Amino acid sequence: MPRVLILGGARTPFVRAGTDLAELDVLDLARAATAEALARTEIDVGQIDEVIFGNVARPVAYHNIALGNADVVVAGGSESLTNVPLTLTPRLARGLIAASQAKSLPAKARSLADVRASDIAPVAPGIRETSTGLTMGESAERMAAINTISREDQDAWALRSHRLAAAGWDDGRLGREVGPVYVDGHAVTADNHIRRDSTAEKLASLRPVFDREHGTITAGNASPLTDGAAAVLLASEGRARALGLKPLAAVRSYAYAAVDPADQLLIAPAYAIPIALSRAGLTLDDIDLFEMHEAFAAQVLSTLAVLEQNGVGRVPVEKVNVMGGSIALGHPFGATGARIVLTLANEMHRRGARYGLATACAAGGNGAAIILERAT
Ligand SMILES: CC(C)(COP(=O)(O)OP(=O)(O)OC[C@H]1O[C@@H](n2cnc3c(N)ncnc32)[C@H](O)[C@@H]1OP(=O)(O)O)[C@@H](O)C(=O)NCCC(=O)NCCS
Fold this sequence. Notes:
By secondary structure, the chain is an alpha+beta fold. It contains 12 helices and 11 strands. It has helices at 26-41, 61-66, 90-101, 105-111, 136-146, 151-170, 200-205, 237-243, 269-280, 297-309, 326-329, 336-351, and strands at 4-11, 15-16, 50-53, 72-80, 181-183, 186-188, 226-236, 249-258, 289-292, 355-362, 366-373. The strands form 2 sheets. Strands 1, 2, 3, 4, 7, 8, 9, 10 and 11 form a 9-stranded mixed β-sheet that branches. Helix 3 (90-101) packs antiparallel against helix 4 and helix 5 packs across helix 10. 47% of the residues are buried. The site of coenzyme A (COA) has 19 residues, from helix 5, helix 6 and helix 7.
């Protein structure tokens, strides 16, 4: 099978929901990231065999190239958590549908007879796991308790994320993966959630959000609701060479794993990692750089703890998220996978690293791990 190369990519700035990119929907954001990724790799758009965007299914771009179905693929994701559709209560929704189908005015009125005043308000979207009804934050609280992850350790991880992300912007490493997005003639050029003024004392003073009485998760040690998009360009080694395009990295292996969502919803990367390592013929010690999605500090720390408990090994924290992670950079759900692969590939290329590993957790108890290797 041909090696699958990562040629490059780009992302929009990641900004807090309801701020600079609030006027743009997911398609605008996806277009901005894709156009920037294509412009940077200077590839002729006629060469693109497939564009895979979003994160609803698992359309593995890698396999389409490895099996020869495609040579150049754009893979990315986009999210506008500002523009999440509001829903109606089931009773109001059923009433409105029945009313729209009723033939007469009295029949229409009868269809809505059961609707109560409390049904009139739209239902705010919740980030809930459908199988358990628990929010992501409540599930992460459960993980913190099971793995005895202290509030202090979570806050320290969050502070580290903000400090490293600020340093990544200051020395230009993060800025180079971001393209501008124009809103009303104004260019949005930078992530806007990184808190340079954050301190351990300020973080310690924040109140828990998801379990107000006994909880440890706060606005400070959770990823924020974010708008943004990211796109990565993949190509077969043969096509990249023929077009004279230089890769950032190559895909060595990947794996998915899943756990019971009622147990530890966001722990599955700890199970995907050993599978990806075994498929690559590598061990944790071979990995030079790790890019782990930070849904919550408690979730990253739980993943590291379970990897150690299960004998997979100890991940040296100084190799993890060397330019911060989703807590500081933000987490536009659909875009984070492409963002972490792009960040990892760029930093591996810059350092001349041999192997890098990226992970992400997801609803449904799912987890993903991908191993990249140096490509020249
Ligand atoms: C946790 C959450 C509810 C917080 O939302 P929020 O209340 O809008 O958060 P804010 O950013 O306004 O922060 C609240 C306060 O904490 C402070 N704060 C947050 N992070 C801080 C930091 N790192 N340092 C110092 N202060 C901080 C803010 O300044 C703010 O203080 P103020 O009220 O005095 O202005 C929201 O971000 C959330 O739902 N996150 C989870 C998303 C999720 O589930 N993702 C799925 C992962 S798979």
